Amino acid sequence: MNQAGDLTGLLRERFGHLSFRPHQEDVCRAAAAGGDLLLVMPTGAGKSLCYQLPALARGGSSLVVSPLIALMEDQVAKLQASGLRVDRIHSGRSPAEMAQAAQRWMDGELELLY
Length: 114
Known about the structure:
Blueprint: H1 7-15, H2 24-32, H3 49-58, E1 62-63, H4 69-81, E2 86-87, H5 95-106, E3 112-113
Parallel strand pairs: 1-3, 2-3
Helix pairs in contact: 1-3, 2-3
């Protein structure tokens, strides 16, 4: 594991949050440790962080599967604005854009691919 031991530091450094919301830290620690888990939380409770932070903590690249193009676009824009190396593949993008994102993923240039 890369930085999984210091999730709070990673939370501050990469996401700009001073602390976790309720239940996020336990979920992030379990995911960073490679555990299987199911998380059910209401909209706006911070579920996305519960896979984004452990993905970064474990190092390498992570693939995020989401059925919602608007959610992908929103999360990618926010993460890119925070300096993370992320991209997305979906039906609203041109074949050239999707091929470029796939190539960046295969070249290890991305932290997250949606």
